[in-house]
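FORM 7B: Structural annotation worksheet

SECTION A. Query
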Amino acid sequence: MTDQILVQRDDTIATVTLNRPEKLNAMTKPMWRRLGEVMGELSADDQVRCIVVTGAGMKSFSPGNDISEFETERSNVEQARAYGKILHGALDTLRACRHPTVAMIRGICVGGGLEIAGLCDLRICGESSRFGIPINRLGLVMAYPEIEVLISLVGRSAALEILLEGRVFGAEEAKEMGLVSRVVADADVENEALAAARRIADGAPLVARWHKKFARRLAEPGPLTAEELDEGYACYGTEDFQTGYKAFLAKTKPDFKGR
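SECTION B. Predicted structure
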């Protein structure tokens, strides 16, 4: 199954590809398991500075779960619970990834595919991309860990609109809702996503990780502790800070080391 979740490295940028183009990159249980493993491995790798997540081919990012699996893998509550443990584990690992993530979206991005893209920090799609979660037609509910992703992106009202109507809609509407960060011409999706990844990778990696950590923490209830507030000054003690401001004054490109 490793060939259905591909990992390619280009210096400090890793690209994770959902590689099942003959099925529009529909996700299977082994693919969910492998996606979680891959994201965990990349998150732990300090040489990585940005991860691009995409689907193979030009037609689809992913339509979500392979419906043909339901008969054998999700035909009852017990099977669904076991499947959900794997799926939610993969989503949790993607959510917890230390490095910035960019979803490169071409074509269809619905259901579980939209959940994967929704957990990325930036979501860049083409003009003809299509979005939605039409699971009401399957008699299928979006579980708590999954609906949380949707609500965090678009809010309760828009999330319920998406789920209750089950419409599939276009890129501009997705942009208005906040489902995607940027819409570009179909032919420009790859270049724009990789350019965004390179801009991220050229920045200070510790700063990117701190920003992700702070944003996650601010979404949680409860006041910040004195220790958490003090962490906002930790960057001043890093080698990267010395590199960054000195390069700015010298009008040169900084060479950050992640220290």
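SECTION C. Observations
Residues 50 and 100 are 5 Å apart (CA to CA). Residues 205-250 form one domain.

SECTION D. Sign-off
Analyst initials: ____
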